Amino acid sequence: MRLWRAWLLTLMVGFCAAQLQAGPHIIIHDPPASIITPVGLNFTFNSDSFGGGVLAFTNTSGVNWFNLYVFVPPPQPVTTFTCGTDNLTFSTCNIFGGQFGYFATVAFTGGPGIANGDLFFVDLGSSGWTPNATFQADANYAPEPGTWLLLSGGIMSVLARRKYFLR
Questions:
Q1: By the 8 A CB rule, do 130 and 51 touch?
Q2: Shortest CA distance to 35 belongs to which of 59, 61, 57?
Q3: Where is average pLDDT lowest: 44-48, 66-70, 154-158?
Q4: Range from 8-12, 66-70, 153-157 carrying the lowest mean pLDDT
Q5: Side-chain half-sphere of 154: how many Cα atoms within 13 Å?
Q6: CA-based diameter of the chain, in Å?
Q7: What is the separation of C-alpha 110 from the centre of its chain, rounded to a whole number of angstroms?
């Protein structure tokens, strides 16, 4: 009976690991490449006809990138996805709700970033994204001024309230 349970547990763990690896993801990393596309601060790229792909780029914007925001279309079928980085480019990635009509926003931040002239890869996996879908990428992305105004107004109101109650 114990052998049967161990076999079932092994089978379930193997299935889950295969599903995690096969699911849609987006990873930024920095290995060498043969076909390289030069890009500036704002660029787009497409998934291949299977809904995946590995694309090579070089930063030709003239400035170092301290973050990279990728606005992603929905995976097919719509499901969760993962993001990652190799820590040679960015140290963290976070997934947020979509903006500008996109399904989600992936923010690559921290770490050394991508220096001007550096090569980098965008790895979409082998499948899982909408085939031939367009992704929008913005380097050194900062929220619009209205967002900063709302945020600073909220912080100032909290500070004013604290000062009022400390009297």
A1: yes
A2: 57
A3: 154-158
A4: 8-12
A5: 6
A6: 71
A7: 13
HEC letters along 61-86? CCCCEEEEEEEECCECCCCCCEEEEC
DSSP class of 116: T
Residue with tokens 């497409």: 46
Give the pair of three-digit tokens for residue 95.
Answer: 């997934």
Whether 125 contacts 106, CB under 8 Å: no
E runs forming strands in 33-145: 37-39, 42-46, 54-59, 65-72, 82-85, 92-97, 104-114, 119-123, 134-139
- Residue 105's pLDDT is 93
Residue-level pLDDT at 136: 95
Buried b (16+ CB within 10 A) or exposed e, 48-69: beebbbebebbbebeeebbbbb
CB atoms within 10 A of CB 26: 23
- Between CA 78 and CA 23 the distance in angstroms is 11
Listed in sequence order, the residues at least 6 apart from 21 whose beta carbon sits closer than 8 Å to its beta carbon are none
Residue with tokens 């990428």: 137
> The pTM is what?
0.68
Percent of the chain with pLDDT over 70: 68
